[in-house]
Amino acid sequence: MGGSTCCVVNCKNTATNSNCRFFRFPRMSYKLEQRRRCISAIRRVNPDGSSWSPTSNDLICSAHFVGNKKSEEQNSPSYVPTIFPTVYKSRKINVTME
Q1: Helix, strand or coil for residue 23?
Q2: Domain span at residue 81?
Q3: Which residues pair with 51 in a beta bridge?
Q4: How many CA atoms lie within 13 A of 70 on its CB side?
Q5: How many Å apart are CA 42 and CA 30, to the nearest integer?
Q6: Would you place residue 18 in the very low, low, confident or very high pLDDT band (cuts 50, 70, 90)?
Q7: 79-88 pLDDT, tens per residue?
Q8: Is 91 left (phi over 0), alpha (psi -120 to 50) or beta?
């Protein structure tokens, strides 16, 4: 993933300027709930205000996961991203652990 950049708003991490790992959004049918929760946590919108949906090229860096790595365990704090730039601090993150 040579030209990798993080899709989180105001995150400047790239494959060339950080030691981060980059993860794709889950796409398998049995991981759709994890995908939905990741998208909800990121809270990104399109320029026209419509809902954003990641493409196969969109990646999220390890800096947004507890312990700097994504977990596949649903009860893990690093199952979805929870660490964001300060622009996110003014808005509540609504990600439920089911």
Answers
A1: strand
A2: 1-97
A3: 45
A4: 19
A5: 21
A6: confident
A7: 999 999 886 6
A8: beta
